[in-house]
Amino acid sequence: MDRLSNQVRKMITSKQLKVSMTEVSRVTGVSTSQLRYWEKKGYIRSEQDEQNKNHYFNLTTIFQAFTIKLFLDQGYTLATAVKKEQERRELHRIFERFITDCILEIRQTGEKKGEVNLGPLADDPTKEVYALIDDHSTSLHLRSVNKE
């Protein structure tokens, strides 16, 4: 795996990116008072600066707030919206694990075209799965493992 892929992978999983409450409110459409209430109820979490004044949220929490608001806008109660967001977050964790564990290489093969190597099959390590992506579709394929 190349250095850039490793850096992106670390950035996605590190949760180091922090955004202020005001910015989260602006981006998600959730008021700062709602964010504070949700945090007080334990639905979301922030980190605070040394004076415990400014709240900072990581990327995961920003998505949580956005998703809770989306469910609220669809007419769900807050409790149900939070539950649905938690279910969605579990699916996201599964997908994130897939992305970090299975994508071995991504390479461009032409303009708006690429290939994603998903690695060898568990029951036949002589074969690997890869995806071809172009401007119109994505398709999965199987090939013999290249032993270079």
UniProtKB/TrEMBL annotation:
Q: Which GO terms describe its molecular function?
A: DNA binding
Any matching Pfam family: MerR_1
Q: Which residues form the signal peptide?
A: none
Going by the entry's taxonomy, the superkingdom of the source organism is recorded as Bacteria
Q: Which residues form the HTH merR-type domain?
A: 20-83
**Example GO biological process:** regulation of DNA-templated transcription
Which InterPro entries did the record assign? DNA-bd_dom_put_sf, MerR-type_HTH_dom
Query: What is the protein name stated in its UniProt record?
Result: MerR family transcriptional regulator
